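Sample intake sheet
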Amino acid sequence: MRKDLVVALVLLFALGVAPAVSAEIIISQPKVLYNVGDEFIVDITLRPGVNTQGFAVADLICDNGEVEIYKSPENLLEGEAKGIAIRTNLDSFLVGDLLGDCYLQAMFGNEEVRSQGFEISSFIDVSLDIKGVNFGPDDEVVVTGSATKVNDFPLEGFVEVEIVGLDEAIKSGKTNEEILEELLEDVEGADVIDSNDTEESGDEVDDVEEKLEPLNFTFVGPVVEGKFEVKFNIPANARPGEYDIKARAYEKDSAEEVINEGESVASFRIKQVIKEIDIALNSPNIRAEEELVYAVLMYNQASEEVEEEVGVIIYKPERDVFSKGIIQSGESQRILIEKNYNPGYWKIEAKTNDLEVEKLFYVEEFEDVSFVLENDTLIVTNIGNVMYDRPLEISIGDVNELKDVKLGVGDTKIFVLSAPDGSYLVEVTDGDRSENFGNTLLTGRAISIKELGDFFGNNWVVLIWLLVIVILGIVVVFVYKKIRRGNFVGKIPQGLKKAVKFKKLNDIKPPVMAKPENQKISSKAVQNVIESGSRERVNVVSLKIKNNRETVEDKKAAHVLNKVLLNAKNHGGKVYVDGDYRIVVFAPVLTKEIDNTMRSVSVAKAIERMLKAYNKSAHTKIDFGIGTHIGEMVVEQNRHKFKFTSIGGVIINAKRAAEAAVEAVLATEPLHGRIVGKVKTKRTGRYWEVMSIPKREDYEEFIHNFLERIKSD
């Protein structure tokens, strides 16, 4: 009985310790990172503690699945060791879609062991570099880069470079007819003609169809030792704008399947280049009192319409300049053809950079005449644009008389009507045009119609006296001009206020004016104001502070205003204060320049920009307007003192323009006539607003410095 108990206890002990010593599995540790397709090497050692028969199995287990990569039947004795070498590739055939964090699990008998974790990835790190940023049509682009797998091995594979967006269809821009139709939507009855006016419109359709064909802008090149380089040229008709270059590097297996890939994106810009300029007209033939509508059309390399400033000159048939200026392309421009505009072919010429285009339009002949009766005088004027050569039938009561009239454009003939004292019905006609003046009081001995030359032919005494009066008038005018151009010398009467003198900018006070400027000033009065001076053409800039009281009370606003005026003074102007106005005078005696027009306009525009820049961040805004005018003054510069007397309201006109301006620069009509073609302007009521000055180098630097000083203050 005792012997059976001992045997049972031995068996129980053997069963209890058998699982712990039945087998031992040892796994060599894999690498930390693998790319798909990499070689996978792991060694497994089996050493069972007891005799063991079964399958040795190795599974690859990842976050998104698992796969058995080894299985072999084994029969090992206790303590017998056997090594298993797993040599395989982590290709798509073996691992399929398994990616991410993984580990290897080995099992034999009742034992299983896990390896340390590792990662399987299909990612390739791609870096991209473009040699340049801005490219024009037909320019060469060089793209270089590198590609490295996550296992730190350089890629041996391929790179695909794609210009995103350029492979889309390149569409043709609008035709001139479509553009002009949009511009003329508000012009009733306007006909649209093609700017070329040819019969090749059918060919244009074919060209558009060709442009709509898709283009391929994807390039493939090799990646050797992790490096690649791809070159291509920008298409000649590529749209301007910003584009992305996407470089996709990849690796294929023996079955030509992509197993690893990565991409990188960089940007570049295609510059806009004006390739074509054209002019579209509403009609090639224009009659008097009709409106010519035209538009300058500019196209870039992609045949897209461009809106930019362009210089335009319009020539009369005799090649004289009718008008010139800067306009915006794509905007409709209108010219009302007056009755007296010369008939013939007029030319519109547009230029931008190296491109130039001309377009002709024909102003048709227009015959017209006006009849005006003043008392007993009939005035016949040719208001058409061609020679007027017709017989006139002039009727006084029941008496009709024919007169042959031949008048050049703008010429006038005068007829003196006479009849016995009384009221007569007066009519005149040339067959096409008639004028009934109604009953008119006439005097004389008999009914007669005489041309003014014939009238004088019978009145030699009257003619002689008229000639004498004319000659005397010419002499008086000549002497007056000679005296006026000379220097004015005289003494200041004790009763007259002292002339305006300039002080330091901070001490500027309103001057005491001898008399309101809008009154006429005689030459004698001028002599009384200035001891010795000369008459000069000056430019005046008037700055009106419309909230003067608030501006003066605000220290920062007053300080900025003083700085603005000091800059004007540094550019050759003389400054004084007149109530709400700050007046800047540019005279040749000060600037040593005969013409100060561009100087004054530049300074006025600079003042506008300075005050607008201040108002953007200021608590107390400066409400202002700027006016600029040109006229004459009698000026005197003596021992660094400047005196002047205004003639003809030159300052009052500048003030009126400043009063009308709202945070802008308004030029008067006389000044506008001197800046046409040099400065971009826009009609605003009776004035011209100065929009921009193409060449602003003369004052751009001091504006920049001024803004920097405001920031520092």
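Comment: The first helix runs from residue 2 to 17. DSSP finds 14 helices and 43 strands in the chain.
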